[in-house]
Amino acid sequence: MKTSIATVSISGTLREKLPAIAAAGFDGIEIFEQDFITSDLSPREVGQMVRDHGLIISLFQPFRDFETLPEPLRSRALARAERKFDLMAELGAPLMLVCSSVHPAALGGIDRAADDLRALGDLAASRGLRLGYEALAWGRHVSDHRDAWEIVRRADHPAVGLILDSFHTLGRGIETDSIRSIPGDRIFFVQLADAPAIPMDLLYWSRHFRNMPGEGDLDVTRFLRSVLATGYDGTLSLEIFNDQFRQGLPMGVARDGYRSLVAALDAVRRAEPTLAVDLPAFPPPAAADGVEFVEFATAPDEAAALAAALAQAGFTRAGHHVSKPVDLWRQGGINILVNTSAEGFAHAAYLSHGTTVAEIAIRVPDAAACFTRARALGAQVHEAAVEATELTIPAIRGVGGSMLRLLDAGENLGRIWDIDFDAGPGAFAGAGLTRIDHIAQTMGPDEILSWSLFYGTLLDAAPAPLVDVADPDGLVKSRAIRSGGLRVTLNGTSAHRTLAGRFHQDSFGAAVQHLAFATDDIFASAARLADLGFDALPMGDNYYDDLLARHGLDPTFAARLKAAHVLYDRDEAGGEFFQLYGNARPDGLFFEVCERRGGYDGYGAPNAPFRIAAQKRRLRPYGMPAR
Ligand SMILES: O=C(O)c1ccc(O)c(O)c1
Ligand SMILES: [Mg+2]
After folding, report:
1. What is the DSSP string of 97-166?
2. Is 157 labeled as ligand-binding?
3. Which among 134, 145, 169 is the best mutation to test ligand 1's pocket, defined by most ligand atoms within 8 Å of the CB?
4. Which CATH class is domain 3-271?
5. Ligand 1 centre distance from Cα of residue 32 (Å)
6. Ligand nearest to the CA of 137
7. pLDDT tens across 291-342, in order?
8. What ipTM, to 2 d.p.?
9. Which of 488, 434, 431 is nearest to 309 (CA)?
10. Does the domain formed by 290-420 have CATH 3.30.300.20?
11. φ and ψ at 562, to 5 degrees?
12. CA 523 to chain centre
């Protein structure tokens, strides 16, 4: 099974696209005619350049508005096709994509279309070429792969086959089981794309919002299962029209594409083990158990402020690293490390970001299996310096170049605190914070899809739909990902004056902006935190008045929330969420404390705009920018 990607999916010119596509691992490309025309190389030179990169041209596209035209348009369309067949021969492209016509003069008619494709098939065959017919979701007469297949079936020509594109099928809500009865050898090419579930005009949606399989809301796995059930063993190609990818970095987009394709095939073989999937074996995605530790990188002269913030949040300095200047702070099941090394990875992270979360260690059922899966999906291995006495814990590169460590319940987890740290067995109740509820990572707006693909393919995880959070200075896009006991939120914006945008700039790249700690008793924790001097974020009367109205709260309960600076949300099923925010540090980093009741599964999104506005008031109390 060959892999391919349409050149339209990647930014730049062919000279920039091709090396990125080759380096990401693809076998071939769909050459978009526009990419060829914009090049000043001859067709032969372009073909040679593709092959010089170790790639093949698997498809030439698109050939538009061909079928069911009246004369003289029909003859003209055939003549146009002949010119393109000449071009394909020079390029070394064996297959042409003919997409269903949108021509206003097209007459329609299944037999008329079949006759036209047969005639085109004769022309192609005489040159040793083939063509595939694709139903565009917005085609004038043909907009459904079932009709396209009927046309191809009636054309009954060895050089004429069907091209399937997951977007056109799934985007129109067409069931995919109908694909299973198509003979696999009549399908000449398969294109894969996902898209977010945003109701809008099909053409506009397709040309601007497609994304990699697994990044959107379409059931691409189901589509691909049906395709492979036909026995199809031809090329699987990504055809992603996306505004963001068009301006993204070629290498990053190509790598994500390859990851999405591998993950899609892996999902298919797990969902339907009887299918023949041409992919090396690697371990399945597993649900994470939670966060074992988070490590801050800082400098000695900044460590005191961080230590004070941790103490005010109820943490106790419970141990020290045996060989490095790293403190262990503990509370409940939460471990926070503060690293002030003047060398090594943490120091490099501090130098590039300032005080920052340099490392996150997650607990998974089998760390070695997870690591193997990560590598199969193209994750970058993090080679950190490990000293002789310390344990080697597999690590991969995470958000903003931070380190994501993989730990399991085996030996390493049991021994990390005994071997690497002089931490005793003491329990530290602190303010009653029990574990890390979620980690909020702030990044560039174009990184959200990429990191949601990262987490969503590495782990057994369900990325939630993207939501917009209103900051007074712009919108922030946010997506939550949950895998078992691990919750991560990804936030990104191009609005530089938002809390998230400012943090992203100030930390010179993506980083953890806030940590949310869970409690089983928000009011007890709030009281204890107040005693400890935790600088809780007060919310205004307008907020609590609205809460009263919105949820029909008992006024004494609302007064209790307000007195404790607690924010509140409730879901449809009556699940409740309580949040308490700390003020943001000058660098934008902050802590949150939260309690979930009755199966509440969200993150208090309705509260976010008010919380952000309150944090900003604190940062710039006189309405002036903080800096
Ligand atoms: O948007 C289009 O016109 C277009 C062209 C070719 C394709 O394969 C496709 O899926 C869409
Ligand atoms: Mg297509």
Report:
1. EEEPP--TT----HHHHHHHHHHHHHHHHTTT-EEEEE--TT-SS--SHHHHHHHHHHH--TTEEEEEEH
2. no
3. 134
4. alpha beta
5. 10
6. 1
7. 999 999 999 999 999 999 999 999 999 999 988 999 999 999 999 999 999 9
8. 0.99
9. 431
10. no
11. -65, -45
12. 36
Which pLDDT score, from 0 to 100, does residue 414 have?
A: 64
Is the CA virtual torsion 560, 563, 565, 567 positive or negative? positive
Coil vs helix vs strand at 507: coil
Give the Cα separation of 20 and 107 in Å (integer).
42
97 lines ligand 1 (CB under 6 A): yes
Beta strands in 444-510 (DSSP E): 462-463, 467-471, 474-483, 486-492
Please, is 251 exposed, middle or buried when counting C-beta atoms within 10 Å of its C-beta (0-12, 13-18, 19+)? middle
Q: Is 441 annotated as a binding residue?
A: no
Reported as a single tens digit per residue, the pLDDT across 174-196 is 999 999 999 999 999 999 999 99
Determine whether the shortest distance from the Cβ of 442 to ligand 1 is under 6 A: no
Report how far apart the first and last C-alpha atoms of the chain are (Å, whole number): 55
C-alpha triplet 44, 45, 46: angle, nearest 5°: 90
Domain boundaries, the chain: 3-271, 290-420, 433-619
Instruction: Tell me, in angstroms, the distance from the centre of ligand 2 to residue 471's CA.
Output: 37
pLDDT at 415: 74
Q: How far is CA 298 from the centre of its chain?
A: 29
* 433-619 classified as CATH 3.40.1190.20: no
Is residue 3 in contact with ligand 1, taking CB distance under 6 Å?
no
What DSSP element (H or E) covers 458? helix 448-458
Closest residue by Cα to atom 2, ligand 1, is: 207
Contact between residue 514 and residue 590 where contact means Cβ atoms under 8 Å apart: yes
Residue of minimum CA distance from atom 5 in ligand 1: 62
**Measured distance CA(10)–CA(240) in Å, rounded:** 8
| Ligand lying nearest the CA atom of residue 99 | 1
Q: What is the mean pLDDT of the chain?
A: 94
Give the span between the Cα atoms of 372 and 58, in whole angstroms.
31
CA of 13 to the centre of ligand 2 (A): 21
From the CA of 8, the nearest ligand is 1
Q: Are 125 and 157 in contact (CB under 8 A)?
A: yes
3-state SS assignment for residue 169? helix
